[in-house]
Predict the 3D structure of the following.
Amino acid sequence: MKKFLVLILIALMATSLFAGGSRESAATSSTATGGGVTGGKIVRVAAANPQVALDPQRYTYSIVMKITDNITESLLLTTEEGIEPDLLTGMPEISDDQLVYSFELLPDVQFHNGEILTSSDVKYSYERLIKLDRMASLLQNVVGYDEMIAGTADELAGFNIIDDTHFTITLKMPYAPFLSVLSTSYCAIYPEDACEAAGDDWGFTVLYGTGPFKMDSYRTGVGVTLSRFDGYHGGPVKLDGVEYRFIDDVNTQILEYQMGNVDYADVDPSIYPVYSSNPSLKDQMHGFQPIGCYSMSYNTRTFPDPKVREALALSIDRQAICDSILHGTATVPTSYIPAGIIGHDDTLPEFEYNPERAKELLAEAGYPNGIDVRVTVNTMYQGNVAIATAFQQQARPAGINVIVDQVDSAAWTDMRLNGGVDCSISNWYVDYSDPESMLYPMTNTDSRSSFWHNAEFEQLLRDGIATTDTEERQAIYERAEYIMTREDWATTPLYNETKYYLLNPSITGFEIDSTFRMFWKDADIVQ
Amino acid sequence: MGSYIAKRLLQTIFVLIGISLVTFILLQVVPGDPVALMLERRADAETIARVRHELGLDRPYIVQYLDFVKGAIHLDFGTSYFTREVVTDALLRSFRVTFKLACMSFVFAAAVGIPCGIFAAAKRGKGIDTVVMVLSIIGVSAPAFWVAIILQIVFGLRLNWFPISGFDSPLSYVLPSIALGARYAGNMARITRTSMLEVLNQDYIRTARAKGVRRSVIILKHALKNALIPIVTLIGTDFGYMLTGSMLIEKVFSIPGIGKLAVDAMSNRDLPLLEGTVMYIAFVFVIVNLIVDISYAFLDPRIRIGKGAK
């Protein structure tokens, strides 16, 4: 018997060692060229495991873009100063009728595989974006989009190549956010031949862009290694490389930072109070406000009377939620469109907590004895469970009996699309710095859980993209938001969050923007 | 014995078919459309319908199920909707990691649990017995993720002895193996103690004592041999559990094993990957149980399948 057990143990240890010996082949199944950067100025970033190809046209996760934004580039780039040309000689010329955009590419821009960027690569990249469905509708205003979606055309008719560095794009109708759209990560430019040759391996084993870093390896479940691209059109950068280490657990990320094994780590709101008071970390903690907000949406089929929806909005003590659940990492909003983009109205008052008034409104709506409200929460965001539970208590004085349902992400998405969600908490961040990106889900696909339609609102959104006059757009979106959040009460803002991260103090020049894009291009390590 | 093994193998096939059917039905019933998840954001109803058609999700359920069974027979579960990785490759990749972690956890659990159980039985009623049993209860009841975090802070952050995440060096497996194995070690200690005490009270042990056989020989040679039979059953089942991965441990230590693969597949409603993972887990359990049953019959000469001990 003893021999038998000893044999089992020896066998297990041996096979365990064998498994260890084959680790490389297992872990590098998705390795590009292997190897990586050794020595020199390398920034190590803790990141959640994206699990998918590093291809923002196919996968829209922010973690994918945090990596690819340092590898690939779009024609334009949105900075704090506005939209700037990146792969272009200057800003595109726009025809008087706002329909035709003329572009000139920078000459001799190299992809990481040595190919030179041409107009056909741009056309290919946009057509690929449409064919991949996921973010295709970003280009829905380009002539030929509808035909491609319908499958009657294989090429984007509105894209006209003049020569290798000149092309035009024709729109079906004036579309003010068009240049903002082209500056997103989804509109990254890929080399046509290499991308086609890679097929489904694109973003796994192969990813070429024109950015300051090239991908050396992508090891599934382990990390991504980038090294400096010496042929970068903006001149070589100071860092030798960037290493992304996949660490899913938010607490482990911080522990790794404390141990000095990573130079950057996100601070999840749930652990913010633990580390914000840590004297050795608090000076290395930085915050920024992404453009977007958390809100509570109401299904207008379940609650057709705006008075009921207003009563629900008045039953939320947002300040208490910010203080006690979000530990001061969030502020009470005054508007759905946050500060920093057109349409934000800073004259509006904060959304108040007034259960008495809520009770009156319910009585006026025919519910003098109160109502039952089912709040469905996506368990992927545990913070939302706490908020829904707080709302349960806060709404009670108004006569609102809140039932909290927790479902997983897949079920939540399904229920939301099928009208099974009466009341939900969700967040929305802009894809590009334009109010259209903030409001379009209310009339399109993404927040159909509210099933809210308002003719004036929808007309305002159409007007908003048809004009480039900033003042006019400001007035349009102010009015649109007012209808949505203070007249029809289709959705009500809950809070604006500040996201925190830890950064090694010896690193300078790191940039993170309000659309949550992360750039290491100008970063350096100062010894 | 040969007919017993053949019978068990036949049962295994029926069990796997049953599991495949239940899995398939449950995945159709549970809310969550993989295509809506894949396309989220800007996709409209028409696009969702088109992609459902491309993936074959609009075919009759029976056709989908038969396709799944046909694929499973050839170990072909298709391609993940999300990662586009071949499911068998993903399973193999994760299995290698989980297998390594399971082996090390198993070795830790057996190396700590069994000797502790023997020691506690030998010192029954004494202080050391109480200490070992209290520790075993803590091991069994402490949540694995809590043990993991404590280990990370003490042996990683404070003492800097071991890495606290990743799986790229032998040392990086130490803490997850302990975190995962602690519960099993506690359980093994308790079962070993109970089994040893039962054997130590038997007549042949008393006879051995009367003959003046040394205490250590009695415990290790005469008692342990018989006491190990229920322990072998336990450790076999435990090893089966370990091979199916541990989502919490894998998440805390950033180990891309089977547990994490299964949870990710479930949250994404990644049907091919989910079906493959469930079939893998079912297969592991069925095979481990089969091996345990067969070894049980081998280890105890009194046991004769279908004949009884006479």
